[in-house]
């Protein structure tokens, strides 16, 4: 009977038991010690290329920098270099889609639409958030592409070079997007601070109205002034369909300013703003109404602002012109200089004679001018532009009013939205500190649409150049104004067709004409008066 083979135990070296052949047991196997396999010495660790994953290219320091650089140019391209096809395609496709949408929007939108977009707080908020999110995502893609291709065990030098390069590439992307976010947020903040008012008509009503009337006020309050005087007063009548704008300029020295009869000022001054005990007092001219409202707040109406002086001026201007004023814009003239400086100055044709800077104190005393603005075409700083607009030395109030209107025209023609963006922070700061208005944000897009279609500026000035048949010399008198005639001129100006492009005929100062009989002189005078009553194109009159 054959002998059974011994059972294998876990300690056996061989997994199978020895085979019995012809009843003989083979001799035991000799255990041989195994020696570990030697590996060839490789290059230094920072130069080793190791596989990141099956099918992916081997890692290297140069490839890591190249992937980061490619991701900076177009996010996702670095992943494609590393054969991360699916991830890279998604990232790059999203990037190209966003760029395409933005390009299409810019190319298909006109200037009006872009202006309306820039004046929408909601759009600006989304733009701010979008720029921040895009910057974070783009930076993350650059860093991720670098980390995927970077080999392990880099030396200190290469680690430093890699980190510095990636940081620089991230800044290349983050800086412009951060600037865009800051710009959009600053614009949104400016809109919130400057156009926070809700007075006047609503946005829907403003669009529906055929005309909008905006009171423009320039205040000369400052450390050298006692109180405040509004030496610049205009009303802009804006056609909401065509954008045609007629400026009605009111001289500072209009006497007997009128108020509604049932108002406190109308009851206090039934014959107009005047002091019979001191008929030549400058404290009762039109530019003193603002100061009167500040010192007598109970005499002023409650709206449209919290400033009683401005409310009182608003009331008298609306009543004298026979217009319902929808909004106002008040500019501190000292701040006006800062706005001009922020815009980079203005190029102005000063005229044939130099303009004194200063020369008259607030009390009216003549002193030596601080300097002069030379004649001809000059590049004016903010202070020079302000002096050009305010100078009364060797000049008249009416000449100064003409310079102010021309300066306004110059700003509109020389300064584009690009100038505003280039110097936006400075302009925003200067504007916030020197401009106040009750125009609500909701109305801004409608006004921007008018500006985008082009603004046609015309002007009517209630000064002695305006004909007035009720006076002895046939010209308007600021010392004894005909308010009924003022309302007639206003209605005629806003209802007549726009001024033709040809330079209009301007009325000459009253002179004695020799060699004419009375009928010829009266006929010529009527023709000149009719020409003068027509609104004058502001660009052609400068």
Automatic annotation (TrEMBL):
Keywords: Membrane, Transmembrane, Transmembrane helix. Residues 1-57, 462-542 are annotated as: Disordered. Residues 229-414 form the Cell envelope-related transcriptional attenuator domain. The chain crosses the membrane at residues 89-108, 123-149, 161-181. The keyword Transcription does not apply. Belongs to the LytR/CpsA/Psr (LCP) family. It comes from Pseudonocardia hierapolitana. This is LytR family transcriptional attenuator. Residues 517-530 have a biased composition (Acidic residues). Pfam families: LytR_cpsA_psr.
